[in-house]
Amino acid sequence: MSRAGILGVRVIKEAKGSIDRLKPEDILFEKMKPKTEEKVFVQDIDDAPVCHAPNDLFVGEARATINRLFRNYLDKNNLTATELLHAPREIKRVLEEGTLLFSAVGKVSTFQVRKMEDTTVNQRRDVLFDFINKINARAIAASEQRLPRIRVDGFNTVVEGIVAKVSQEHVSHLIRYVMSVELVENRSFLGKFGQLMEWAWKAEAPQALEAIDIFVSDTLYNVDVLRDMIGNPRELGTALVTLLCVAEGRPLVEEEEEEEPVELTPEHQEFANATFIRLIAAGKLPESKAVLVDRVRRQLEGLSPLTRGDREEEREVFIGLLDKLIPDIEIIGGPSMAQAMTARQSTIINKGGSKGMREAAETMLPALGDPGRATGYLLAMMDSEIGQTVLRNDLETLLDKLLVHSKTINHLIRDKLPPNKKMAKVTSIYHHIQKSNLPPQRKAALTERLDELLVSYITEGKILDKLDNPEKPLHVRAFMLVSMVQPEMLPKGKASDLARNIIVGHLRRANFEDELVAAIPDPSEKAKTLRKFHEQLHRCGFFG
Questions:
Q1: Structure pTM?
Q2: What is the pLDDT of residues 58-92, one digit of tens each?
Q3: d(Cα 71, Cα 84) in Å, to the nearest integer?
């Protein structure tokens, strides 16, 4: 009876019949364990953001920590973290839950004091409990205002009333409060998600969608909501790809090209998920998108295999996942995702510790192939926790090997691309380095090297001579030359100056505009061509 998983003991007579067809007289002894309420504990966390005021507990990072700490409690009581922070009755319940809150505050305090100076864990704990008391007082004050119910007056009407009558500093909190009043009564995460999508479907005020996004992002921590959204993929890799598709706002079921898109109504079975994906695609649920991406990151950083196959199949699935995470130079999920990808690569190559992460970072580059993707990965890794400490010198070396040590553009970009595509690729790398967090001197050294490579590529390939071929009409030559100095084609520097000097030479000709359109017979087309040419010149900075 003392062993875990044993619910009771039964002793029966020895008989030849089925054990499933026992009669009362066949049972000699029976004793069951008394039913006890399962104790709920807070979950472990790996970090916690510093909160400077009670309002900081409502923001995304803090709620993510609450969602992880109180996952068991929230799932057991069918609550979102935001409901917990706004409903006085729910705050009271968690305050009375014995050591649950004290344990959670202790874990958070421990992480926070590591980022603060001259603060002890006990002092930080007192500050956090003070924040909780103030949040509780604010929730009670909201409940005493007798605000209208959404179920009676309608979502938009209630929100509009709050926006019109309440001071700006209290609007967001009271909108979340009236939503919590309704959602607390819905004792199902799927039901809450569906209700939120119904509100979002007709939401009008920007404050309304902002609040909806907060609640929706909380529901995404519940496995039932995710399972309903993406199904039950047999393998982790498939699940992560599907989550990324949802985070990008891509429909999970491909629509036929001939079919007209149909806006579903709340009565439709797929309404909630379809509406969610549509809002994600429209950029209206940024916090919800961030939660999905972070879930991918955490799973990627974990030890669960992406596939049930062998190591080679694991590697292939990972390569496919990289195509989603780094479609070009920007990496979805930023530095933390880059670190998670490196951790997964270290698992695939079966090398652990700092040495394994170094080798993983190096072997990631051939896996990415494209120099733009490789540069984006390295720059993101440099901003990651491990990239700023353990791997910094290694990443700098890899960046030099990729960009500085490449002898020509063709060594850097080995794909068979037309010249304009190669130059645009190098230019995108150039701009990405300029926007990075590298020190100014380092940025200058790398961008100057890329500019030198572009100059060599243009001159040795006689690209400008081919574009400015006198046998072509002047307006054709002029537009091709101007295309060379577009911001996305060549960065400002020596390479773009080569084309700019030729363009300036043409512009200084006495009758340039007449010559430019001389080969165009239609007067209206001449005017249109001149107007378009001046627009292109303006875009390229020729007019200051």
A1: 0.84
A2: 999 999 999 999 999 999 999 999 999 999 999 99
A3: 12
